[in-house]
Recover the amino acids of this structure.
């Protein structure tokens, strides 16, 4: 379970989050939408503990993230995966080495077991052929898929997706959506997804929340949000916004 | 904002930066037990640093030794005492010029590149990615770089010293009429006169180089880790890294010299 209560955060002079609250039950995907610059990625960074709120509570699995000490936070992060907007791959490592990195750092698996696991997730995201390539030589979509493979390789309990289909063509996008759904259904992973994509929100989400002025302006199940008369719901989930 | 506020803010920022650098150094050495796992990366870094800086360092060292011999030789010739030219060149190179030249070149070539690499990683979320994977950026990125420069700066300094003295010997022979054998004998006398296993002039110089190497890598990585705001931020990080490294090289060089030659006899 992921829960944020009355989270406020100011970056510089700008109030990014102003009392944001949301609740993601275990094994569900929560989609966070909203205009650019309204604090969606900032919300994810609070959940993973990169940012600390000025006030409010951020809990993951019942643990209060902002007050955790470094070791506890590291331990919690090992149970989480994070997909960055651009993949955030390490440039001097190959795709395969990037994906293997969290396992090499933390798991007690043998080299061959790590290689097998890496091979498996790379096949899942359709990057098996590009495993020897370095990030600067692959496309943005491939970087994103490699980032997704890296987020999933440790079989996390929670995955935070920051724009999981940004820059992807519709076919690959659809594959990624299927993967997010499969990860939730088969492994019971709890997901928090930031996206602007209507297709991603409606296909992958169990609940959708739309953020405005630093807090959730409208929230509900996919069906409720599709039927909502709220202007933001109409703007983000109305036909043709994808 | 008035003048006092601006001054206070500037001082606070400097203290904050210095604290960050010190904290980084302590954290890096605190995680030194992880170093064997980073050995491949460490050797890559050390090799790159050596290869990148070696040609320039050697050229500069040769000319520095030559200039030193030339300038000193002009005066010594007036007093008819050019026989000590080897001593003066060797002592100057080993005590000060060798470590200083090597460190400044390392700061400009390797330090700037470290700041750019780490800074680019910072602004493109790669550092955050390491953190969310529970990989400590300090032991993954910073520690191998510090150890690499701590190894390479003294290594290059030894070569610098030798090439610098060689440069001086050429000038001594060609322009001042001091034979090679006389020059090298004089240099050797100066360096082994202390009777210790490693002459003081050499080990103080090497200690300086070690301190410079650690300082350059720490300051450069710190500048990179504090980069923000895209390409402009990376540019500023490089500028900060080189400026602070050169400043530290001079200040630390003074402190080490003062400690070994004045405080400690």
């Amino acid at each position: 379970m992921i829960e944020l209560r009355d989270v406020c955060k100011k970056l510089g002079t700008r109030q990014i989050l102003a009392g944001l609250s949301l609740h993601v039950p275990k094994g569900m995907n929560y989609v966070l939408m909203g205009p650019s610059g309204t604090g969606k990625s900032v919300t994810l960074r609070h959940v993973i503990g990169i940012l600390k709120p000025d006030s409010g509570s951020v809990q993951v699995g019942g643990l209060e993230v902002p007050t955790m000490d470094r070791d506890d936070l590291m331990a919690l992060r090992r149970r989480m995966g994070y997909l960055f907007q651009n993949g955030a791959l390490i440039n001097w490592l190959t795709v395969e080495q990037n994906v293997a990195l969290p396992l090499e750092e933390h798991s007690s698996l043998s080299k061959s077991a790590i290689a097998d696991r890496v091979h498996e997730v790379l096949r899942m995201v359709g990057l098996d052929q590009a495993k020897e390539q370095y990030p600067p030589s692959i496309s943005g979509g491939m970087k994103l898929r490699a980032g997704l493979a890296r987020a999933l390789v440790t079989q996390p309990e929670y995955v935070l997706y920051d724009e999981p289909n940004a820059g992807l063509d519709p076919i690959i996008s659809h594959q990624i959506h299927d993967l997010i759904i499969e990860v939730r259904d088969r492994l019971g992973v709890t997901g928090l997804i930031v996206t602007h994509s209507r297709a991603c929100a409606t296909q992958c989400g169990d609940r959708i929340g739309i953020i405005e002025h630093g807090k959730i302006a409208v929230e509900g199940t996919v069906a409720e949000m599709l039927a909502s008369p709220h202007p933001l719901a109409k703007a983000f989930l109305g036909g043709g916004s994808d | 904002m008035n003048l006092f506020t601006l001054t206070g803010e500037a001082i606070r920022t400097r203290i904050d930066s210095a604290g960050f650098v010190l904290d980084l150094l302590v954290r890096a050495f605190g995680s030194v037990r992880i170093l064997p796992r980073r050995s491949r990366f460490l050797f890559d870094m050390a090799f790159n640093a050596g290869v990148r800086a070696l040609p320039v360092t050697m050229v500069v060292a040769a000319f520095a030794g030559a200039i030193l011999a030339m300038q000193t030789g002009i005066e010594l010739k007036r007093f008819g005492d050019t026989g000590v030219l080897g001593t003066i060149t060797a002592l100057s190179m080993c005590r000060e010029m060798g470590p200083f030249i090597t460190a400044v070149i390392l700061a400009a070539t390797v330090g700037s590149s470290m700041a750019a690499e780490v800074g680019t990683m910072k602004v493109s979320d790669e550092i955050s990615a390491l953190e969310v994977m529970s990989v400590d950026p300090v032991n993954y990125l910073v520690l191998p770089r510090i150890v690499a420069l701590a190894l390479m700066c003294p290594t290059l300094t030894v070569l610098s010293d030798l090439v610098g003295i060689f440069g001086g010997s050429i000038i001594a022979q060609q322009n001042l009429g001091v034979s090679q054998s006389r020059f090298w004998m004089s240099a050797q006398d100066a360096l082994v006169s202390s009777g210790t296993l490693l002459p003081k002039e050499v080990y103080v110089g090497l200690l300086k180089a070690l301190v410079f190497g650690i300082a350059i890598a720490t300051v450069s990585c710190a500048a990179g880790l504090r980069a923000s705001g895209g390409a402009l931020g990376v540019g500023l990080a490089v500028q900060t890294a080189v400026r602070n490294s050169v400043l530290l090289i001079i200040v630390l060089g003074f402190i080490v010299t003062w400690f070994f030659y004045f405080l400690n006899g």
